Structures are given as C-alpha cells and as structure tokens.
C-alpha cells in the first residue's frame, strides 16, 4: 500500500523509549511523520489490509499500554485495567508481546499472562495454567493459529527462583556446604514450552531446555520452531522435532520473518534461508550499502530490511533503497 509503520529512536532517548511513526512512500523516498511516543516499548503488530477496528497497526509498552494508529492519528488503551496496591501505588503486571491471531489481538506477559480481544469485544483473560507444570511460570513470545484452528503459543517455562524451606533452613543455620548441596539437588532447567488453548491449556511440547523464541506454521502443514540459541526445527505434530539447523556455538537471530511461507533469518549482518545443508545465504543477498542493518520484517506482499536512515524493499529479484525523510 506504500504505508509503513516505524519505530524511531531520538538521540536523547533513554532505554526502550521510542517514537511511533508512519511513513508514506513517494518514489524512492519515505516521508515519515511521528504519531506518538512510547515508554518501555516491547512489541508491535501490523494488521492485514482489513485492519482492526479502523487501526492498521499497534504497539505495546511493558505496562500493557497499546497505541493504535490508522496512519493519520493514534489512540491508546490498556490491556490490563489499572489497579492499585494497598499503599496507593499503581500495580500493573509486566507484558511481553502483542500478536494478531485469526482476527483477534493476543497479548502475552510474564507469569503466564495471556489476554485476547476480538473486534468490538472486551479483553478476556486466558492466562496459562496447567497441573503438570508447577513451581514456576510461563512466558510466551509468539502466538499463532494452530493446525486445529486454536490459539497456540510458544516460549519458556521458567522454574521459580524462590528459596525452598530446606534452603531457608540451611541459610538460617549459616551452613554454606549444606546450602550448596541442596541447591544443586533442587536445580531445574528452564525449558521450551509450546501450548494450545482449547477452552483450557494443553501442552504440545516441553521436552527440551531453553527458550522458543520464534514459532510459525509451515506452508505444507506442521510448524517451524526456533530456539533463542539458534536451533531450527520443524515438526508435524510435536511428537518429534526434526533438526534443520544448529550452530556450533549458541547464537540467536536478530530477526526472523516468513517470506512466501519460508523463514528468512537476519544474523551477523546477513540474511539466511534454509537449504539442504542447513542455513545458507538468502537470494538475492543484501547490497553492501544496506549494512549495517537494524531489523527485518515482511508483509503479505513485501520483504523489508531497515537501516538507521533507509528502508530496503525486495522488488522482484533486486533490493531497492528507500530513503527516510523526517517531516
């Protein structure tokens, strides 16, 4: 459509502060207009052409504030209604990602938080709990529609770091040797968690240590799953994971996007795709003057790569530079 939604940093911005902006393409330029600012930005979702209640995109801050835009103006709402502690201070639970899944907004946060809202409907809380997973909490980083048509999420189950009664007793007795022995015996690894919501949560996969940082459907059925350490798998039904790529030393990806149904990876200033022997250079490769880069993203019709002062768009078999012009 020639409209881009961008996140911009200012020179005096503090950590995780940014500007929400809209860009309009004019030939080989994109004219950028600021439409709002964000504190502690954590996630962004761009909607299909039909939009969501008139909005074309939204961002989310860590406190659960959503900032929507139709490309001309911006408006906000809270995912979790504001509440207050006994001393009168605000109590907002920290959020993590905003997703657009099967026509609905899905917001996830720490301690298993999951909230969903369909158009013209209020938010509903469907936070993760499961009797087989106790002594910790879930955090979901991606949400999609499962092959069964349900909401499916992937992330991590992090075990509690709170001291057990045995550890508290050893600490009170100042017995360092006993404390270390108990801690070693009780240590549990955080592990990948993939779950599906079928009016209640069903665990699809939780057998490997680590974090599932990216999760998508495959075009011919099944799923792609990527760990934060850079391991790429595919699976039909989560009964088994087929290894597609694994780095010699753990290294995550800066960005991953689907393009024509297949993942494109941004890592070490290169775009990569899946080949018969694992990851290989994406074709066509980025031009030298497209680097260093910041991020990669895709729409139904475009693959885009961002620099500090330009966007690169894949046009047929060539990358085309679009200069950013601030209003």
In whole angstroms, the N-to-C terminal distance is: 20 Å
- Structural class comes to mainly beta
The helix content, as a percent range, equals: under 10%
Number of strands: 29
Going across the biggest sheet, name each strand in turn. Answer: 1-2-3-29-28-27-26
User: What coarse outline follows from CA principal-axis ratios?
Assistant: globular
Largest sheet: 7 strands, mixed
Radius of gyration: 22 Å
Overall average residue pLDDT:
88
Characterise the protein shown here.
- This protein is mostly beta strands.
- Helix content is 6%, strand content 50%.
- The chain contains two helices and 29 strands.
- The protein has helices spanning 165-172, 176-186; strands at residues 3-8, 18-26, 29-38, 41-46, 57-61, 65-69, 74-78, 83-84, 90-91, 95-101, 104-109, 114-118, 124-125, 136-145, 151-159, 191-197, 201-205, 212-217, 223-227, 232-235, 242-245, 255-259, 262-267, 270-275, 278-281, 295-298, 303-306, 310-315, 318-326.
- Strands 1-2-3-29-28-27-26 form a seven-stranded mixed beta sheet, with no helix packed on it. Strands 4-5-6-7 form a four-stranded antiparallel beta sheet, with no helix packed on it.
- Strand 24 and strand 25 (278-281) form a beta hairpin.
- Helix 1 packs antiparallel against helix 2 (176-186).
- The longest helix is centred in the middle third of the chain and has 11 residues, at 176-186.
- It is globular, with a radius of gyration of 22 Å.
- The mean pLDDT is 88.
């Amino acid at each position: 459509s020639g409209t881009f939604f961008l996140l911009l940093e200012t020179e005096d911005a503090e950590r995780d502060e940014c500007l929400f902006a809209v860009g309009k393409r004019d030939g080989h330029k994109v004219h950028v207009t600021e439409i709002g600012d964000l504190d502690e930005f954590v996630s962004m979702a761009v909607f299909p052409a039909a939009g969501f209640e008139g909005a074309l995109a939204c961002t989310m801050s860590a406190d659960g504030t959503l900032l929507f835009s139709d490309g001309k103006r911006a408006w906000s709402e809270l995912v979790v209604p504001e509440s207050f502690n006994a001393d009168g201070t605000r109590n907002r639970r920290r959020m993590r990602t905003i997703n657009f899944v099967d026509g609905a907004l899905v917001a996830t946060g720490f301690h298993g938080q999951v909230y969903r809202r369909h158009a013209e409907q209020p938010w509903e809380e469907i936070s993760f709990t499961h009797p087989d997973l106790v002594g910790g909490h879930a955090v979901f980083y991606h949400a999609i529609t499962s092959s069964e048509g349900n909401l499916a999420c992937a992330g991590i189950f992090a075990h509690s770091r709170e001291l057990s009664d045995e550890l508290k007793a050893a600490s009170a007795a100042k017995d360092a040797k006993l404390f270390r022995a108990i801690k070693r015996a009780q240590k549990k690894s955080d592990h990948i968690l993939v779950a599906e919501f079928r009016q209640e949560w069903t665990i699809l996969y939780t057998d490997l240590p680590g974090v599932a940082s990216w999760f998508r459907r495959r075009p011919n059925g099944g799923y792609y799953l990527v760990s934060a350490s850079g391991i790429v798998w595919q699976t039909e039904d989560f009964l088994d994971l087929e290894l597609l790529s694994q780095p010699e030393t753990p290294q995550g990806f800066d960005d991953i996007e689907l393009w024509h149904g297949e993942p494109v990876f941004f890592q070490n200033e290169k775009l990569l795709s899946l080949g018969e022997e694992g990851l290989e250079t994406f074709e066509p490769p980025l031009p030298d003057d497209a680097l260093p880069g910041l991020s990669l993203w895709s729409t139904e019709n475009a693959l885009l790569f961002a620099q500090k002062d330009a966007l690169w768009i894949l046009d047929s078999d060539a990358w085309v530079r679009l200069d950013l012009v601030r209003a």
